[in-house]
Structure formats: C-alpha cells, structure tokens
Input
Amino acid sequence: MYEVFISREAEKYYKKLNSDMKRRINRCIDVLSKRPSTGSHIRKLHGILKNKYRYVVGTLRIVYEINEKNKTVEIRAIRSRGDVYNK
Output
C-alpha cells in the first residue's frame, strides 16, 4: 500500500467541489493507494510534467507523483482538464 498525500493547492480545490465529485475523488485516492501507476484512467505524463502521472475523473484531472522508495503518492493538483496542465 502507498500512503497518499495531498498538496495544499489540491486540497483547496477539493474543498470547493460538490459532494458527488468529492466521493468520486475519494474513490480515486483509494485506487492510487493500491496501484498508482496502472489503470485505465491513469497515464504517465511527459514534457514539463515528466515523472508525473494523471488520473482522469470525469472533467477533472488529478496530477500526482509516485515515490517508489518511500511508497508514497503526492497529489500535486486537482483541476479541470484545461487548467491542470498549465500549472
């Protein structure tokens, strides 16, 4: 199991979401704690976001990093598709 951490920026965005979307994000975090690098909604990013992954949740994207050595996942951003890659 991986320990999942959420950045302050991602947490602020999460708090503004409605309860249904929060439930969906919580399910995704549960998946990330078990297998963060594989899945149908997970893709490794490249370019400026090299070494990061994204998880698609409807119109939102969760961008995160995996530390295999420490068995941790750090969620860097939760934003809409158009905004998340510009940060």
In short: The two ends are 28 Å apart (CA to CA).
